[in-house]
Write a structure and sequence with these properties.
- The protein has about 250 residues and is mostly helical.
- It has 2 domains: about 20-105 and about 115-125, no CATH class; about 140-245, no CATH class.
- It has 12 helices and 4 strands, in the order αααββββααααααααα.
- The protein has helices at about 20-30, 45, 55-60, 100-105, 110-115, 120-125, 140-150, 160-170, 175-190, 195-215, 225-235, 240-245, and strands at about 65-70, 75, 85-90, 90.
- The strands form 2 sheets. A two-stranded antiparallel sheet has the order 1-2. A two-stranded antiparallel sheet has the order 3-4.
Length: about 250
């Protein structure tokens, strides 16, 4: 699937996406097909902003394939409302022979990275059905924090595609990924006794303050790097004071 839309925030729902660690393992293995508990959701089939890319062999299996200027290649055709022509009465009519782009697609990577394609109302509604990833262990918490920190390294991404590319760029460099995991673990241990809402508030203050400072310095879309969290953790006065000093 290919998309070209912008990032925005969304509200969480109730459908269980599983644990962060289990999802990252399945994501890195690139399972085919992806095991997604869709629960009857057809958001990716109805979205006007998602395209099912086809390779040469798949183009032969789908003679009605069309060229997409957005993707730069052949894709499954869509109706005027943006839905896939093979979605009939709310179900995929080619499910057993669907192309690879459909088989491996998993919208939960947007939950992992905290990035969503903001001008896609269909996928916004679909994502709002998911609850946050469960984090029953320290590893789950650290993996989720590290993944979202990876997206912010060297600046905030402007599109979901860019966010995903940034995650892979860091994850595939073991030294960088281990550094983020260590920072995430330090953050978790230091604030383990604090209420979750308060920790989120303090971290949001730190990020907002660091981002504002970078804008003042004239840096283009520069976001706080992992070093910002490290300085926060080392500070004896805590993140709130660090944020105040940096503002």
């Amino acid at each position: 699937m290919t998309t070209t839309t912008k990032i925005a925030a969304y509200q969480a729902g109730a459908r269980d996406p599983g644990t962060a660690s289990n999802f990252i393992r399945s994501m890195t293995r690139r399972a085919d097909p992806a095991r997604v508990p869709c629960g009857g959701c057809t958001g990716c089939c109805r979205s006007a902003y998602l395209f099912a890319d086809l390779d040469a062999e798949e183009c032969g299996r789908f003679p009605d394939a069309v060229h997409s200027d957005v993707v730069g290649g052949m894709v499954l055709p869509k109706r005027e409302d943006g839905s896939c022509t093979y979605l009939i009465e709310g179900k995929c009519s080619i499910y057993e022979r669907r192309p690879r782009a459909c088989r491996v697609y998993d919208c939960r990577d947007r939950l992992l990275l905290g990035a969503f394609d903001g001008n896609d109302p269909v996928m916004l509604q679909a994502l709002q059905e998911w609850a946050p990833f469960r984090t029953p262990t320290g590893e789950d918490m650290d993996l989720l924090s590290a993944a979202r920190a990876a997206v912010q390294v060297d600046g905030l991404p402007e599109t979901y595609k860019e966010a995903l590319a940034k995650f892979w760029a860091v994850y595939r460099r073991p030294k960088q990924w281990r550094k983020l995991m260590k920072v995430a673990a330090k953050f978790r241990r230091r604030f383990a006794a604090m209420p979750v809402d308060e920790v989120r508030m303090l971290y949001a203050e730190l990020v907002a303050s660091a981002t504002a400072r970078c804008k003042t310095l004239g840096e283009t879309r520069r976001a706080p790097a992992p070093g910002s969290m490290v300085r926060c953790l080392k500070s004896p006065v805590g993140p709130r004071r660090v944020a105040e000093r940096r503002s």
